[in-house]
Amino acid sequence: MNSSQNKKAKKRICLLNGGGDCPGLNAVIRAATKTAILGYEWQIWGSEDSFDGFIQPGKMVPLTLASTRGILSRGGTILGTTNRGNPFDYPVKNEQGETEFHDYSQQVIEKFKELDLEALIVVGGDGTLSIGQQFFQAGLPVIGVPKTIDNDLLATEVSFGFNTAVQTATEAIDKVHTTAESHDRVMVVEVMGRNAGWIALEAGISGGVDVILIPEIPFDMEKIGDKLRQRAEGGRPSSVVVVAEGAAPRGGTQIYLEQGSRDSDRRLGGMGFAVADMIQQQSHIEARVVVLGHLQRGGRPTPFDRLLGTRFGMEAVELAAQGSFGRMVSLQCGRIESVPIEEAVAHPRLVDPNGQLVKTARTIGISFGD
Ligand code: F6P
């Protein structure tokens, strides 16, 4: 037996991220790569654009110390991402240019075996983690890492990216205060938050706004008008309103910029403008709108998000070493623990309308328009 035959083949694992990007993803990739290589002498591969590395040629790339150098402070993800790449329902253009959906899951499983992989780390929100869980049920050794800018996964106290988003939104709110005051206007700031209003709530309190509208508390325009008029009558003609994009009036619906047959095709947006219009019509106060949109998902991650991403990335590889598959890393009371992925995707983290944060906001005079 020669020395190369004698040398034990290195264990190989793979990491992918899916869904929307958020600050801190690169910290996860870097920490997982360093842990695999420095801690275990494994090889680690990255699947580009979610599961595409398993479906399309040339999109499975080696992750190395060199390729992950210098990425800790960078937003986005060096692997690219998509929220339209579900292998169980994969979009393909037919000859007429129309999109058809096919099941490519078997191809993913075959490619996984062909690459001789021993673990698949799936970094994602409820959608991508649910796909990971489907592959786990189909026999793949999957480990989950929670990623949600909206912070809407109950199984972890917080996910990376959220802290950076709250910082970005708070800075924006700080800035609109001065222009609102100068013009005696209402400034409406629309932030992300599909079903969970955490960014609006935390940035709203931190930025000292007057009204916070979130999906969990349906609002009433008259109540918002009352609040703004009270302020004007009390000598404060300017106000700042923060609106989560998924907020809706009582008895009304969310507003979409784009409708679609699938969840991933539907794009929320527009509630900020609707609220500003209603304020102008009903309260006769001039209103302007700022939509923060993807600014919240971009930029340099805060130290908190870099640290959490690093801790999650390391622990995901540790779970692979222990053979603890079907589990997702999570932050619990400041410690990194793990929970079954199945449990993690079953329960969204929503704002409790009777919880401490909402109570704090109400007590200091912030209206939820209810
Ligand atoms: O789910 C996270 C999120 O940022 C939502 O808050 C937002 O509605 C959506 O993604 C935007 O998605 P896209 O990047 O596809 O426009």
Q: What shape does the CA trace take?
A: elongated
Largest sheet: 7 strands, mixed
Would you identify the CATH architecture of the largest domain?
Answer: 3-Layer(aba) Sandwich
Attached small molecules: 6-O-phosphono-beta-D-fructofuranose
- By DSSP (H or I, 4+ residues per run), the number of helices equals 12
Please tally the β strands and state the result. Answer: 15
In the CATH scheme, the class of the largest domain would be: Alpha Beta
Mean pLDDT: 96
> Which structural class best describes the helix and strand composition?
alpha/beta
Strand-residue proportion: 15-25%
Strand order of the largest sheet: 3-2-1-6-7-14-15
Protein described:
The chain has 370 residues and is an alpha/beta fold. The protein folds into two domains: 3-160 and 301-344, Rossmann fold (3-Layer(aba) Sandwich), CATH 3.40.50.450; 165-298, Rossmann fold. The chain contains twelve helices and 15 strands. It has helices spanning 3-6, 25-40, 52-55, 105-114, 126-137, 162-183, 198-206, 221-233, 271-283, 303-322, 341-346, 356-363; strands spanning 12-17, 43-47, 60-63, 90-93, 99-102, 119-124, 142-146, 186-191, 211-213, 239-244, 256-258, 267-268, 287-291, 327-332, 335-340. The strands form four sheets. The protein has a seven-stranded mixed β-sheet with strand order 3-2-1-6-7-14-15, with helices on both faces. Strands 9-10-8-13 form a four-stranded parallel β-sheet, sandwiched between helices. A hairpin with a 2-residue loop joins β14 and β15 (335-340). The longest helix has 22 residues, at 162-183. The radius of gyration is 23 Å and the shape is elongated. It starts with a helix and ends in a 7-residue tail after the last helix. The mean pLDDT is 96. The protein binds 6-O-phosphono-beta-D-fructofuranose. Residues 20, 83, 149-150, 192-194, 245, 267-268, 297 line the site of 6-O-phosphono-beta-D-fructofuranose (F6P).
